[in-house]
Design brief:
α4 links the parallel β8 and β9. This protein is α/β, with parallel strands linked by helices. Helix content is 37%, strand content 20%. The chain binds adenosine-5'-diphosphate and alpha-D-glucopyranose. The site of adenosine-5'-diphosphate has 18 residues, from α1, β15, β16 and α12.
Length: 476
């Protein structure tokens, strides 16, 4: 295929190397999706401690002498088919723990750590490297928010920039006194540019300087104009409205495929799903005549996990059961364990992160619950659609854009794919679970909705075309 252009993608996470959430899935999926559109993409992330043993097999392509207290070296190599660039700066990234926090909480120098990532991305994009010069720099979330700003304030070299907001709740705040240290111009310290409630904010810096802003669903793009979703940045979104678009994430349909599971099934032949359900019930010691629901999620306030203790008792009384896989807020973890203790044989909880188990859960369950307060896109409801594991979701953000509620009209028209509810509270959620039970009791309708769900297009094709069109508009 003819090459339409080149993109340097910069982020803090990328599957299969490092993941704390859906950001990593999306950053890891975009290169293959865009290759199909003629756009070549390389991905730059930090070489965290657990990635450093990969560097031996890679080639040095960039050296940055003065990177906030030490040198940075960028290595290039193909990892699992991805054209990866790893920024090795041991003084910033060779640390115990996750990408953003160590044993004692968030790293004190996160602003500098990710400014360094953004600085290197902007410099490499501007100059080109390794015989390769990008047309576009694509920055993801607050961690890469300074990258478009460095292009804007230190020279773009003809490179266009895109900022994708995966979650506006994480904004990357730094004190105003760090403006010189963060290599940003003092003249730009005013509310129309870098200043944010008296400080600095890397996400805002990206939002005011990037040529285009995207977020990961059309509904979230619209929601961001409102204070309850914009979280302080709604005015910035409004000022840039002409350059903002919502492009829905896809999922990797080769990885998330019921045909490829150990007990394979398809919309035409669902026996494998029944076997997977039976195996799941044995694995978790649950017995459920009604719908068997799952939750696969970070356990946080965003995800509405605190509502489960309010709705699960009635759901169990109506014949339902729930298996929960997740980790996060200790209070929520304890609340989930409490549910398990209260409803043995009906509720089971696994605290932790387990990719293989999540596949078994989507294969065997009847429904997946996603009661988020806000959800920029969300991936698990789309896995649910693929697997005929009906999504029960709050009608916000990408959840609203991907699930068609089983209303009487949608059922009559034969287009329903799940159950949606609004607002995100225990009353509406409980009502949705009652509807799920009724739907499950009507085998013929259930099978119909399952078939619709499994036929839904959740792949990357359409979204990749939208990104390619956006990039096309930035080629100089
Ligand atoms: P977010 O990025 O806000 O956490 P998404 O739905 O976009 O939400 O992405 C979450 C991703 O992480 C999905 O791929 C989901 O399957 C996965 N995930 C979340 N928690 C777990 C877990 N405990 N075990 C396995 N996978 C998980
Ligand atoms: C964020 C959002 C989630 C989205 C993901 C990938 O983590 O919380 O809704 O699916 O990014 O874009």
């Amino acid at each position: 295929m003819e090459i339409r252009g080149r993109v340097l993608s910069v982020a803090s996470e990328c599957v299969p190397l490092i993941k704390t959430g859906g950001l990593a899935d999306v950053v890891g999926a975009l290169p293959a999706a865009l290759a199909g559109q003629g756009w070549q993409m390389r991905v730059l992330i930090p070489a965290y401690r657990r990635l450093r043993d990969r560097l031996d097999a890679m080639d040095e392509v960039w050296r940055e002498p003065n990177l906030w207290g030490g040198e940075g070296v960028v290595y290039a190599g193909v990892i699992d088919g991805l054209d990866m660039l790893l920024l090795d700066a041991p003084h910033l990234f060779d640390r115990e723990g996750g990408p953003y926090s160590g044993p004692g909480g968030d790293w004190w120098d996160n602003a500098q750590r990710f400014a360094a990532l953004s600085w290197v991305a902007a410099r490499m994009a501007r100059a080109g490297f390794d015989g390769w010069k990008p047309d576009v720099l694509h920055a993801h979330d607050w961690q890469a928010g300074f990258a478009p700003a460095y292009l804007a304030y230190h020279g773009s070299g003809g490179v266009g920039s895109v900022l994708t907001i995966h979650n506006i709740a994480f904004q990357g705040w730094a004190p105003a006194a760090q403006i010189d240290d963060l290599r940003l111009p003092r003249e730009a310290f005013h509310p129309g540019a870098l200043e944010y409630f008296g400080g600095l904010c890397s996400l805002k810096a990206g939002m005011v300087t990037a040529d285009r802003i995207t977020t990961v669903s059309p509904t979230y793009a619209a929601e961001l104009l409102r204070p309850e979703f914009g979280m302080g940045l709604e005015g910035v979104i409004r000022a840039r409205a002409a350059d903002v678009s919502g492009i829905l994430n896809g999922v990797d349909i080769a990885v998330w495929s019921p045909e490829a599971e150990p007990m394979p099934y398809s919309a035409k032949k669902m026996t494998g799903k029944a076997a997977a359900r039976a195996a799941l019930c044995v694995e978790f010691g649950v017995q459920v005549a009604g719908p068997l629901a799952i939750v696969v999620s970070r356990l946080t306030d965003q995800k509405g996990i605190d509502l489960l203790p309010q709705v699960v008792p009635d759901f169990v009384a109506a014949g339902g059961g729930v298996i929960i896989l997740g980790s996060g807020d200790p209070a929520l973890e304890a609340a989930m364990r409490g549910l398990e203790a209260r409803f043995p044989g009906r509720v089971a909880v696994r605290i932790g992160y387990d990719e293989a188990l999540s596949h078994r859960l989507f294969s065997g369950a009847d429904a997946v619950l996603v009661p988020s307060r806000f959800e920029p896109c969300g991936l698990t409801q789309m896995y649910g659609l693929r697997y005929g594991t009906l999504p029960v979701v709050a009608a916000v953000g990408g959840l609203a854009d991907t699930v068609i509620h089983a209303s009487p009209a949608a059922l009559r028209a034969g287009v329903a794919t799940g159950v949606t509810f609004h607002p995100t509270d225990a009353v509406a959620f409980g009502q949705a679970l009652r509807q799920l039970c009724a739907l499950h009791a009507d085998a013929k309708t259930w099978a119909r909705v399952q078939a619709n769900a499994m036929a839904a297009d959740v792949g990357w094709q359409a979204s990749a075309a939208a990104y390619a069109a956006l990039y096309d508009g930035l080629v100089r």
